[in-house]
Amino acid sequence: MLVAAVVLIACLSVFNLVLTLAVARRSPGTATFDNEPPANSLPDGSPLPEFNAHTHADGPISREDLRGEAIVGFFSTTCQPCREQAPEFARVVRDIPGGREQVLAFVKGGGAAEAELVGLLSPVARVVTEPAGHAGASAAFGIVRWPSYLNVDAEGRITDRGQVSELAVPTPSPAQ
What we know:
By secondary structure, the protein is an alpha/beta fold. 28% of the residues lie in helices and 20% in strands. It contains three helices and seven strands, in the order αβββαβαβββ. The strands form two sheets. Strands 5-4-3-6-7 form a five-stranded mixed beta sheet, with helices on one face. Strand 1 (52-55) and strand 2 form a beta hairpin. The chain starts with a helix and ends in a 15-residue tail after the last strand.
């Protein structure tokens, strides 16, 4: 009798496990295991959001201050890929037409890592620093992935986003 009860419980447990796995497999809301972070919330074609911030060395800045094609980068001091990609970002945007006036970099965090990022980015971009844990102006851009990069067209619309190596840096027009 005890053996029959143990066998019955074991069979029910296996059946329950099979049903649970079948339901989990078919459920559309199941989590994936690819460690892919959520996407930033502003899609390509969106206008640059309204924002007001204070740059590290150049004073106030807002949406209206970015005229023409521009690039916006978002970095965090607690993000290892941010610190690794910042030198490449600085190299890529170094020769953008219009110079650093067409490049905006947000640095979230503090301490020595912030000072290092600001020192690296300031020669090639207007830099906005924001304290960690504070929504700040970067929140207006819907940024949830760090680092993030946005290309902005002449009409002030986001045209692309992606890795620093994929940035579409505008080139000067040939003289006519």
